[in-house]
Amino acid sequence: MISRRDTITFSPEAFAFAIGLIALNWIPLMGSKAALIYLAAMAALVFWQPQRILDEGYATAAIWVMIGWCLLSFLWSNYPSQTIRHGLQLALTASMAVAAGSRLSTTTVLRVLLVTGLILAVCQFGIGRISGSGAWLGLYNSKNQLAQFAMIPMLVGLAITLDRRGRRYLLPGVVALVAGTFLLIVAGSVGAILAAMGACTAMVAIKFLNRLGPWQRLLVAGSSVLLIALIAIAVSGFFDELSQLMVRLTGKDLTLTGRTTLWQAAFDEISKHPLLGEGFRGVWVVGNPLAERLWAEFGIADKVGFHFHNTFISNTVEIGLIGGAMQLGLFLYTLYFLVLWAIRSPSFESLFWAGYMVREVILVNSEVMFFAEFAADTVLMFMAIVVARRYQLSLRAPAGAVRALGQTPAARYSDRFAG
After folding, report:
1. What is the DSSP letter of 276?
2. How far, in Å, CA of 258 to CA of 51, rounded?
3. How far apart are alpha carbons 174 and 182 in whole angstroms?
4. pLDDT tier at 398 (50, 70, 90 boundaries)?
5. What counts of helices (H) and strands (E) characterise the chain?
């Protein structure tokens, strides 16, 4: 039976969150205009309840310590003004995620992701931009960006179809699943398709674990972990044999991006500044000798949208082993608690976040997924950290009690954090 908590009501905070997400996805086309819309939505959300800001900041201190380190790196950055500007933008990006993740129920967050995913999917079809190679671009500047967006409505739709509680959202959920899958395919990103396969496998396996016996659970869990690990390694481009197979099947060489060359250049830079790095956003800057050399070597004429093809390697070059350890710690913490939540209480909310984190596990090996300023993926990653924190706090609360970050349990912020 659907509880009264599932009644759809208008929430100004949810509306502001939705507008902010949509604006972030329009930045590649609209630029500063979309960024201003995001900032307005973020400010409306954060200051709707200004009395909660300090409590939420304290409860998510690890996020702000990491961002503080990014900002502090201006002291040794190659380009201090660049570091300060982008560091402040990262703080603004995190502000909406922390406020939304703290104040909205996990069910409301999934509703917002469902609605915004459908709206943006329609926009992708309406824009219909195609690259010179024939791949769809939609609102974005690369097929990888489109593929990463497509996985969100796809995972939301799959999560809804897996949970009987989601039957009231079944029709839009199926539409989101089909639209996301279609966009993922037409984007033509092999890595993203493999990541989607791994995430969907994990969600289905987690959903049905409780129906199996102990040995069956062990077999299914072990097989799923092995498959996800193999996919992650494949996306990294380490398997030469698999790379050649992908060439024969798709005409795409997994190592054509020159990842090994880029990684070697990254490791060389890390060895020069191991603990502190070269400053947040202090590497891929016009005029920086390293960036100029790599742009020239790989033929990147516009000098944008290029990176070291690995989240933690790329970020460590900028903020050093200290900052990289902070980010890795946050990532592993979030992965553990969100997967634990899904295993203990498989619902469309928990299954989505578990699938999202599995996607991240796979794609961090080939893309820079976080933490980038004014990026929807970064907002979702910050939100994942907040949701994981909320679940951890719920484990300490009495049975049936629910805790919103920085506040005592309140029915308004109810979540599906069952046992």
Report:
1. T
2. 50
3. 12
4. low
5. 16, 0
Neighbouring C-beta atoms of residue 101, cutoff 10 Å: 26
Hey, what are 66's tokens? 């990491």
64's CB contacts (< 8 A; 6+ apart) are 57, 91, 94
Contact 103, 412 (CB under 8 A): no
What is the pTM for the complete model shown? 0.88
**Confidence check: pLDDT of 418 > 50:** no
Provide the CB-side half-sphere exposure for 208 (13 A, CA).
10
Tokens (6 digits) for 280: 């947040």
| Residues in the chain, total | 419
Q: Which residues pair with 130 in a beta bridge?
A: 136
Does residue 71 sit in helix, strand or coil? helix
User: What would the pLDDT profile of 301-317 be if each residue is shown by its tens digit?
Assistant: 888 878 888 899 999 99
Q: How far apart are the first and last CA of the chain?
A: 19
Round to whole Å and give the CA distance between 398 and 402: 8
Burial class (CB in 10 A: 0-12, 13-18, 19+), 29: middle
- State the residue for tokens 């409505």: 153
| Whole-number pLDDT of residue 131 | 74
Contact 271, 224 (CB under 8 A): no
Q: Which residues of 193-222 are buried (b: 16+ CB within 10 A; e: fewer)?
A: bbbbebbbbbbbbbbebeeeeeeebeebbe
Query: Quick check: 409 pLDDT over 50?
Result: no
Tokens of 206: 């987690």
* Distance separating alpha carbons of residues 91 and 113, to the nearest angstrom: 22
320-353 per-position pLDDT tens digit: 999 999 999 999 999 999 999 999 999 999 999 9
Burial label, 241 (beta-carbon count in 10 A; 0-12, 13-18, 19+): exposed
Section 386-410 average pLDDT: 68
* Residue 130 φ/ψ, nearest 5 degrees: -130, 140
